[in-house]
Amino acid sequence: MTARPTAYITTPIYYVNDRPHIGHAYTTTLCDVWARAMRFAGRDVFFLTGTDEHGVKVEKSARERGIDPQALADENAAEFERVLEVFGLTNDDFIRTTQSRHVRQVQAFVKRLLEMDAVYLGEFEGWYDEGQEEYVTENRARETDYTSPISGRPLVKATEKNYYFRLSAFQERLEAFFEANPGFVRPEARRNEVLGRLRDGLQDVPITRTNFSWGIPFPDDEQHVIYVWIDALLNYATALGMAEDDGDAGGRHRYWPADLHVIGKEILWFHAVIWPAVLMALDLPLPTCVYAHSFWISEGQKMSKSLGNFIDLPTIERYMDTYGLDAWRWYMVVQGPLGATDADFQAAGFHETYTTDLVNTVGNCASRTTAMIGKYFDGVVPADAGTVFEGWDLPGAAATAFERWTAAMATFALDDACEAAIGLLRTVDAFINATEPFKVAKDESRRDELASILARCAEAVRIASMLLSPILPAKMAELRAALSIDLDVANGGLAEQAAWSDRLAGSTVTKVALFPRIEAPQDA
RNA sequence: GGCGAUGUAGCUCAGCUGGUUAGAGCGAAGGAUUCAUAAACCUUAGGUCGGCGGUUCGAGUCCGCCCAUCGCCA
After folding, report:
1. Which of A 125-164 have CB under 7 A of nucleic chain B?
2. CA atoms of A491 and A41, how far apart (whole Å)
3. Which protein residue lies nearest to nucleotide B72, measured between its Cα and the C1' atom?
């Protein structure tokens, strides 16, 4: 028995000091679509998400509420886990940076970095704002005349010993790596940003702090706490047990390295440069791709606390109540900021996308096809009588859609994959309009022709439903039920399922209305 | 302030190495039709391709400057 090819996809770990909002839901949804698609395509998938729980902000928030930081982390991590459930997301693990499996492995990794001389104890001198408990850069300090921009009090010259990661030592290897792997950072615009900054030269980065204690202690020097990036980035490795000293007892090493780290653009630098450098230092294989999407804005404006226009969890749940979970997924994937520019979340746009794509195209095409089979063939799919329709090749269209879908999924062009699938249904619609089965049905002598039309429509709809299943899992399950297909789309078989066949002939079909028409929202 | 990107029909965007009447989807208007969720179908919409200048026989498509928006960095 040969091992199936693996696929390892990750979201960033979400900071527990935040409340879940559309940004988190979006990233995780994208990963979920891809994970489902890869499972269906037969790959051995590991889909990871989790929470980042250390750091000064969590420590501070907890202190303000008079509770233990761990208690705060537990509370908010539970909220993030609830999101996964509400959205029906299919992650294989949920890692938390306060879990002992993570803590001990981070320490092991850091020890290794020390041994390799990739981490060293260095001294930092800078302008310190005592009120804010933070350093300001020389430039910023000069701008404010060496006083605190907040309190106005003079800044003090302070020195601090910290452990540094020798990032500068990896300049050439990183440049060579980027050269050899043009697809490492995507989309292209983001790659260019990284390359530009790389050209400016790399500086070593501190990886420990001493001004707070809520974090993983530095091995053998516990007054230092490992700073966010090393702690957080390593989750991708610790979740697979890459630094456990039990070998591969968890059986997850086969997933390493990640095929895809999906992130938001704000953390690109860490993933695109620091992360591969750390892995080079650890002598671990590098991930295939870091995909940095952009942000959602809301009704034309940046989301902010002061504007109160955050698309938060309750807002999202309202949309899901009205339009359904699958409709939410569709909007995220089709209208979202997969590219280099931000996308605008609009109530009117949501409604329009729902109506145009799901009601008028997917739902309607399934409806008219199943309705005609019900009306003209008593609900039993006829066998294709082989009639030739000049200029129409549905099997060919299905094969093309499948190829395009496959290529799109391979490059995380999820919107394009959706387009490929729905395009096949548009072809079915056009085929019906051109061949006019509803007229053919009036002539008993054209029975074969009618059977050929509807058999082909049903088969194309079936194949489209396969391609749509990772994006619209619940609705496509409904459609499969209406076509009397019993199928597990989560465990391989895509290529076989997406191939043109006559398997529907003789099966019973019921008319479906997958996406109910919904009245446009009043406001806006 | 440095580097980079973008600016094309009401909206969202295509337009590769410059070449006849600048495209698609959605929206809007009109028409025709009924298998279907008042859906699908047909036709239409006349946008100085951000502005100015330049290169060229010829420029959304190249160059310069300017304006606007955005991103990364400082």
Report:
1. 137, 139
2. 8
3. A193
The Å distance, CA of A102 to C1' of B3, is 38
In this complex, which residue's CA is closest to the C1' atom of nucleotide B39? A360
Omega before A206 within 30 of 0, i.e. cis: no
CA-to-CA distance for A68 and A98, rounded, in angstroms?
13
Instruction: Indicate if the alpha-carbon torsion angle A435, A437, A438, A439 is positive or negative.
Output: positive
- Please, what is the average pLDDT of chain A? 90
Using a 7 Å cut-off to protein CB atoms, list the covered nucleotides of chain B: 3-5, 12-13, 25-27, 34-41, 70-74
Kindly report the number of other CB atoms within 10 A of residue A380's CB atom.
Answer: 15
d(CA A133, CA A138): 16
Domain residue limits, chain A: 346-497
Question: Distance (Å) from CA A188 to C1' B19?
Answer: 30
Residue with tokens 């919904």: A518
CATH number of A346-497: 1.10.730.10
ipTM of the complex: 0.86
First to last CA, chain A: 58
Token pair belonging to A414: 């999820």
- pTM value is 0.93
Any idea which of A13-22, A293-302, A328-337 has the lowest mean pLDDT? A293-302
Residue given tokens 């879990």 in the structure block: A99
| Coil/strand/helix, residue A185 | strand
CA distances from A393 to A92, A250, A318, A364, A404 (A): 40, 49, 42, 21, 16
A454-499 per-position pLDDT tens digit: 999 999 999 999 999 999 999 999 999 999 998 899 999 999 999 9
C1’ B66 / CA A332, Å: 38
| CB atoms inside a 10 Å sphere around CB A124 | 12
